[in-house]
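Progress note, sequence design subtask.
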């Protein structure tokens, strides 16, 4: 099976005095579902950020989608990011744009035709049960609704990899279950690789997954 991520001896840090992830070795199979757990401040979000180049390793090799991220050009990084969908805990929607336009953004960046964009956005709005909210703005929606928009945006351009940082951390039960269903569907139906940082793995998930746990800068696989 192809590897979508390969990490060899990577160390991550924001400053010279404190190493957050220390000489980690791991890999992620293409089409797999992966959970990353750990205590608050253990480095879960830092590790996730490294997968889309927001933080570079200070040591070692990190290859994501065939791109070496320890020393990457801006053009190559932008190319890689076009194939990644990201779901943040705080949504990161553009407040001045409607829900519809927020979901369109990755499709516009990737140069899709207008008709394709419209069809895809309509389909996704229906999928996340927000078709009736298409013309509203993010701050007019609840937190759960905003996260569903963020999920639709992450799925819109059919990425090879979805990175989700505590995607249900602040959500009600209905929205949480919908988010897990969407992630599970993307993985089982579209063969999208899913990596989720979370405090708690849901018991309702009906998919085989790999589980990595971070403790004191070390990354362990839990079977």
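Output:
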């Amino acid at each position: 099976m192809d590897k979508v991520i390969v990490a060899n001896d990577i160390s991550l840090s924001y400053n010279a005095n404190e190493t957050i992830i220390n000489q980690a070795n791991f890999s992620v199979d293409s089409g797999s579902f992966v959970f990353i757990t750990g205590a608050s401040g253990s480095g879960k979000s830092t590790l996730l950020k490294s997968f889309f180049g927001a933080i570079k390793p200070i040591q070692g090799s990190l290859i994501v989608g065939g791109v070496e991220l320890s020393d990457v050009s801006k053009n190559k990084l932008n190319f890689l990011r076009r194939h990644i969908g990201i779901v943040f805990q705080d949504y990161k929607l553009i407040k001045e744009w409607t829900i519809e336009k927020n979901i369109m953004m990755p499709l516009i960046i990737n140069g899709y035709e207008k008709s394709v964009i419209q069809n895809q956005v309509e389909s996704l709005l229906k999928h996340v049960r927000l078709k009736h909210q298409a013309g509203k703005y993010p701050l007019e929606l609840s937190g759960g609704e905003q996260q569903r928009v963020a999920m639709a945006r992450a799925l819109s351009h059919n990425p090879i990899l979805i990175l989700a940082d505590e995607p249900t951390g602040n959500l009600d039960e209905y929205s949480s279950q919908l988010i897990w269903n969407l992630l599970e569907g993307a993985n089982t139906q579209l063969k999208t690789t899913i990596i989720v940082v979370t405090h708690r793995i849901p018991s309702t998930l009906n998919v085989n997954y790999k589980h990595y746990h971070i403790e004191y800068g070390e990354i362990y696989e839990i079977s």
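The radius of gyration is 17 Å. Work on this subtask will continue into the next period as scheduled.
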